Structure formats: structure tokens, C-alpha cells
Amino acid sequence: MKMKEMNKMNTKKNRRFCLFPIMLLLLGLLFTGCGFSNKQTVKSEDMQIELPRDFQKSTMADTSWYYKSMNGPEALGIRTKKSDLEKMGFESDSVNDYVTNYIKANEIQGNPVVESKNNYLTFTYSKKVNGTKYSYVYYIFENGDEYWLVSFSCYADVLKEYQKTFDAAAKSVEFVEE
Questions:
Q1: Which of 85, 57, 83, 81 is nearest to 69 (CA)?
Q2: How far apart are CA 18 and CA 30, in angstroms?
Q3: What pLDDT, in 10s, does the model give residues 115-129?
Q4: How far apart are CA 109 and CA 104, in angstroms?
Q5: CA dist., res. 57 & res. 75, Å (int)
Q6: Which of 49, 62, 87, 167 is deepest in the core (most CB within 10 A)?
Q7: How many CB atoms neighbour CB 49 within 10 A?
Q8: pLDDT digits (tens, 9 = 90+) for 54-63
Q9: Which residue from 138, 63, 146 is spatially nearest to 108, judged by alpha carbons?
Q10: C-alpha atoms less than 13 angstroms from C-alpha of 105 in its C-beta half-sphere
């Protein structure tokens, strides 16, 4: 066999050999990147929400659920029964009353603007804690005889980066039978 013919044969074999790892790589990407969701469903009481997978379950006093991200943002949910609010002397006729009372009770400064979106109310505010400025985004839901407050927090300078993630999580909230 001539040298040219041998080189052509080796080139064809090498192409086939090179295609195998490429195909394995593509299959791996399909199953890890595209095939599985980068979200997780968190269920607490009668509420469920989809959070990014990098949020890990943790604990915080007086919350129904609490998750922290390795990248910094945090998420929490608080379920409050209307009857409990009434026992404490708060008006709870509407979700608007609840939000107004929450802002006052927690001494949230700056008169945050409360907006109505989809099936919830939302507001954002920032404050300094030990010299570091944080932003807090609240989503408040009314479900029968209860209110759910879902809050996200992050460093104030990266809020724009996370706002869509927080909004998508709020839009994923569903109430299910216990």
C-alpha cells in the first residue's frame, strides 16, 4: 500500500475514534444540563415553591422554611394564620392589611412601595447590617385563612442579577391540599 492510501485509512479511523468521545460529551450534557431541572420544589404546610437547586435547606427561628445559597442569596417562608393575627390585635381583613401591619411591626424604613402582581403583593427595600447593604424582596400571598410571606435577600449591589430568579420563584408558588 502506498503511503497516501495508508494516511487516508488512518484519518478515517481517527475520525471515528474522535467522534466517540464527542458523542459521550454531548450525551453527558443532555442528561446533566438540559435533561434535568436546575430547580427544586420546596413544600411546606400547604404551599410549594420552586427554588434554584443551589439553595440548601437550613434553619432560622420563626420561619416555616429557610434556604441559603452558596452564592449568597437567602430565601424564607413564613405562614401566618389570620386567627393568630387577630389574637395579637392586628387587623387581618385583607392581604393589604397584613402587608401594612408587617411593615410597621418590623419597622421597615423608607416607605416601601407595595405593588400588586399576579396573585400576590410585593415590595423591596434595602438596609445596612453591620456596614453591609442588603436588599430584601418580599412576596405576600393570601390563601384562605392564612397569609404566606416569602422573602429573598442578597447583597444590594447584586439585586438586579437575582431579581428575575426571585420573581420566577414567586410566580411558581402554588397552594396544595395538605
A1: 57
A2: 19
A3: 999 899 999 999 999
A4: 9
A5: 10
A6: 49
A7: 24
A8: 999 999 999 9
A9: 138
A10: 11
Q: Which three cell numbers stand for residue 134?
A: 442588603
The set of cell numbers assigned to 109 is: 424604613
| Cell output for 123 | 415590595
CB 67 within 8 A of CB 58: yes
DSSP the chain: --HHHHHHHHHHHHHHHHHHHHHHHHHHHIIIIISS-SEEEEEETTEEEEEETTEEEE--TT-SEEEEETTS-EEEEEEEEHHHHHHTT---SSHHHHHHHHHHHTT--S-PPPEEETTEEEEEEEEEETTEEEEEEEEEEEETTEEEEEEEEEEGGGHHHHHHHHHHHHHT-EE---
